[in-house]
Write a structure and sequence with these properties.
The protein is mainly alpha-helical and about 100 residues long. It is built from 4 helices and no strands. Helix 3 runs antiparallel to helix 4.
Length: about 100
């Protein structure tokens, strides 16, 4: 991409407050995602419960967003459980013939 074109795009992005806000939102979502993966399981469980409570208190798009974060927290907890159980933990509960 030519240098002049890059300069114009950057200048345009800097001058556009809505674009800057959108970028901040995406950065916050990515950071929340990354931080959730680093939380210890007990704290992640409490966070999941709080997100579920918030999802039940809200309606419409905000409730759906809280519900999505609750589901993500649950998936992160499930992943932790699988890691803790190790490879053989994946097979726990399977009955042999």
């Amino acid at each position: 991409m030519p240098t002049q074109r890059i300069k114009q795009q950057v200048a345009s992005a800097i001058e556009n407050p809505d674009l800057r806000k959108a970028i901040r939102v995406m950065d916050n979502i990515r950071e929340a995602h990354d931080v959730m993966w680093t939380l210890p399981a007990p704290i992640l469980g409490v966070l999941r419960d709080e997100l579920l409570r918030m999802a039940q208190d809200r309606t419409g798009p905000r409730g759906k967003l809280k519900q999505a974060w609750d589901e993500f927290a649950q998936q992160a907890l499930d992943a932790r459980t699988r890691e803790r159980k190790g490879v053989l933990g994946l097979y726990q509960g399977i009955k042999r013939p």
